[in-house]
Amino acid sequence: MWNVSLIPDQASTTARRVDALFLFDLGALVFFTGLVVVLILGFLIRYRQSAKVNRADPPRTSVKLEILWIGTPLALGMTMFTWGFIAYYHQYSPPADATDIYVVGKRWMWKLQHPEGKSEISELHVPVGQAVRLVMTSEDVIHSFFVPAFRIKQDVLPGRYTEMWFRPTKAGRFHLFCAEFCGTNHSRMVGSVVVQTPEDYARWLSSGVGSASMARQGEELFVRYHCMGCHGASQMVRAPRLEGVYGSRVPIQEGSAIRFVTADDRYIRDSILLPKSQVAAGYEPVMPSFQGQIAEADLLKIIEYIKSLGAKGTDR
Amino acid sequence: MTLLDAGPATREDYLGKHTLKSWLLTTDHKRIGLLYMGLITFFFFIGGAAITVARLELLTPRGDLLASADAYNRLFTIHGIIMVWFFLIPAIPATLGNFLMPMMIGAKDLAFPRLNLLSWYILLIAGLFEIAVLIGGGVDTGWTFYTPLSSMFSNSMVVPAATGVFIAGFSSILTGLNFLVTVHTMRAPGMTWFRLPLFVWANYANSIILVLATPILAITLACLALERTLRVGIFDPALGGDPILFEHLFWFYSHPAVYVMILPAMGVVSEIIPCFARRPIFGYRAMAWCVVAIAVLSFLVWGHHLFVSGQSMYASAAFSILSFLIAVPSGIKIFNWTSTLYKGSIRFNTPMLYALGFLGLFTIGGLTGMMLASLAVDVHVHDTYFIVAHFHYIMVGGAVMAYLGGVHFWWPKLTGKMYPEIAGKLSALLVFVGFNLTFFPQFVLGYLGMPRRYYEYPPEFQVLNVLSTAGASILAVGYILPLFYLGFSFWYARPSGPNPWRATGLEWQTASPPPPENFEEVPLVTTGPYEYRPDESEVDDVDD
Q1: Domain A214-315 is found in CATH 3.40.50.2300
Q2: How far apart are the C-alpha atoms of B139 and B154, rounded to whole Å?
Q3: Shortest alpha-carbon distance between residue A186 and chain B (Å)
Q4: B5 CB near a chain A CB, below 8 Å?
Q5: CA-to-CA distance for B270 and B202, rounded, in angstroms?
Q6: Contact present, B54 and B79 (Cβ < 8 Å)
Q7: How far is B80 from chain A (nearest CA, A)?
Q8: Where do the structural domains in chain B lie, given as residue ranges?
Q9: Interface test with B, best of A6, A14, A35, A81 (most B CBs within 10 A)
Q10: Architecture (CATH level 2) of domain A1-46+61-211
Q11: Interchain contact, B153 vs A36, CB within 8 Å
């Protein structure tokens, strides 16, 4: 209880970047607050009523000084902006080697799903050194995924995917908080991120009851929801094949014009829930909406399955 | 301007009549100012009581004082809603602004005296209704009403609470409108725009924000009520809405509203510092343009509340840069106030202590605001106690300090009585020390990662929470003290004379308390508002 530190654990590559900027900002704060306080105290003492000093002709304004104190906060602000934006860009741009983990927030717990098939509640195991991209959504209200030791935070929204990433730099157990007020037990929507050595992580991943990979589970759902009937090999209705579609540029018919969008998680989600909104060029808008029929966690499995079809794209 | 002879008042002042009817049906802006002061003081202590209990709960990591998490959530919601809409927003404009603005420009009253009284009744009704809803029923969404929590999930009285805020908004709009018309049309002969006291400039800029921004809040709350009652899909994705739309609309009002709280406070400080430094304010025109610049820019920075919401990275960049721009006029003001002390003859009366406290705390509040505008830092501290500490440095360290300074400064004007100086200084000191002890630990808590609105928290955060609660108890004493000695002085203190500070503002060039029509005859203004000089004996021509 008594070991109060001023800077929390630094446990990700992002943490060091954020702290560097924070310390710069803090330095500026201390410098300028100190400057103002010293000037004020100096004037208060020197020009107190009882002091015998020269008070003749106090200046009413000074163009030079006004320019100085337009320029100083401006220069400081632009420095903070540039540095802040560079670090922010880094905070939200996952590297190419990041592996995906899926997050579903629900009052008042976190459901975490590894592509290998293992799922967890309010505890996330990750290997040290491995970049992890989180793809997140909520089943009800807005939540926010916050790991102070990683200096990352991202709101988790219903009806939409948001993402963020981190690369843990040391093993240990770190707080996971919900940072966006979500009702009664908001303060109990907490958990841990457990960072393990790669060996421990591999052991953890293969331990316990074996479950099929996310893509495998997604394939079962793909069949159960009758997606296969149209999108599968023996299609009766003309629908686009999905091999290789993930990450590709898809042509979308908009009136007489054609627009290209990248088939990312959001696109696939929208295509399942709001199929009429973005119809692939050359196909009829015949797909029914699955809005309200597929749980968020299952949607993510189907997306992971479609993603896994990428390698088979050549047998079309 | 010449000083009025401090002869015995020959005519009855505005406080003369004592019947209840003469107060409840008054159209005198001075009486309405006092009515507002009574009302918002009541709201302040309701909002303060709610957070006192919540703060005591936070003494320990586990929930043990209150029966449930819901009770805690309702308490901080009461605190937020009451303090923002029923104390901070009306605080300075509706009390001191109402009382002083017409006198500062040499007018008899506001442009629409009956509308002014109506504004007070609207706030009274809205406030009493809101308190009945919040205490009788309870709301657990926080003052921000984020959707879809508020529109679809909360089981508390969201629509009635939003209705109270909606009604209160009309009070803001009407007051703002009244001030704008008054400043444009009722200035005394010779009162040019650049002879206006900075307090008038601040309230003018503030009124523009009130008139333009408050309707957005009304529309947003109406949409929220539509979705909650009729299931019209606006914000909840399950109904085809977008929750981020609510955040945009809410902050499009609520960020300018922050400046509604701080601009009039800046006005108060700009009056106090030259008076107690006995010299003209430094950079008058820059100060006037700065409040206008702040009012305009305040409409362009709302997106800095959405850096982690999922808004586009480039939108965040734009809002970040705009947020740094608004720091520039605020910075200019701090430097100009500081320079106003140079070559002054400085007295340390209570109003000056509050103003100096404001300067220090607002500087820290402003600079931590710049830290929050630096995108990457905001990502870490967003929705933590760092934010809580930051905006309390602005709203309490800034706005409330200035309000109390202003109340002490103009107390002789309001009542014709002098408050007890020693008690005043003690309260200023208690507020300053208590404030810092309460909120400084929260900066550290926030950077360590403690999220706000947590009923329970991990044990490693306890020490800092205990410090914060201890500070809050000192702060509470600092706030309760003036209630007693100001009340006491109102009835028992010695008369102050018309102008005990020998202030040069037009509002002081008439009796204290003023006659009902403010001035015996329409004043003719020939100089600016800050023609202060040290006493002859203090101008010492030593070389320095």
Answers
A1: no
A2: 8
A3: 7
A4: no
A5: 10
A6: yes
A7: 14
A8: 29-533
A9: A81
A10: Sandwich (2.60)
A11: no
Domain locations in chain A as residue ranges: 1-46+61-211, 214-315
Q: Give φ, ψ of A177 to 5 degrees.
A: -120, 150
Closest CA of chain A from B158, distance in Å? 13
Tell me which chain B residue has its CA closest to the CA of residue A136. Answer: B310
Beta carbons of A181 and B142 less than 8 Å apart? yes
Say how far residue B256 (Cα) sits from the centre of its chain. 13
Q: Do B325 and A77 touch (CB under 8 A)?
A: yes
> CA of B58 to nearest chain A CA: how many angstroms apart?
12
Q: B343 to chain A: nearest residue by CA?
A: A55
A294 is written with which tokens? 């597929």
Judged by CB atoms closer than 8 Å, whether chains meet at A188 and B69 is answered as yes
Tokens of B375: 């995108």
Q: Do B367 and A28 touch (CB under 8 A)?
A: yes
Which chain A positions have a beta carbon within 8 Å of B243's beta carbon? 142, 157-159
Contact B374, B320 (CB under 8 A): yes
CATH of domain B29-533: 1.20.210.10
Q: Which long-range contacts (CB under 8 A, 24 or more apart) does A74-79 make?
A: A74/B324, A74/B325, A74/B328, A76/A28, A76/A32, A76/B370, A77/B324, A77/B325, A77/B327, A77/B328, A77/B370, A77/B373, A78/B321, A78/B324
The beta-carbon neighbor of A184 closest among B70, B316, B464 is: B70
Tokens at B148, concatenated: 């879809």
Please provide the size of chain A in residues: 316
Q: Can you give the pLDDT of all 316 residues of chain A as single tens digits?
A: 455 677 899 999 999 999 999 999 999 999 999 999 999 999 999 999 999 888 888 999 999 999 998 999 999 999 999 999 999 999 999 999 999 999 999 999 999 999 988 889 999 999 999 999 999 999 999 999 999 999 999 999 999 999 999 999 999 999 999 999 999 999 999 999 999 999 999 999 888 766 788 888 888 888 888 888 788 776 566 788 888 888 888 888 887 888 898 888 888 888 888 888 888 888 888 888 888 888 888 889 899 898 888 754 443 3
- Give the number of A-B residue pairs with CB atoms closer than 8 Å: 300
The pair phi, psi for residue A101, each rounded to 5°, is: -130, 140
Task: For the beta carbon of residue A257, count every other beta carbon within 10 angstroms.
Answer: 8
Backbone angles phi, psi at B342, to 5 degrees: -65, 130
**pTM above the 0.90 mark?**
yes
User: CB-CB: which of B238, B313, B373 is closest to A159?
Assistant: B238
* Shortest distance, CA A212 to any CA of chain B (angstroms): 30
Cα–Cα distance for residue pair B323/B318, rounded to 1 Å = 9
Q: Which chain B residues are Cβ-neighbours of A65 within 8 angstroms?
A: 283, 335, 339
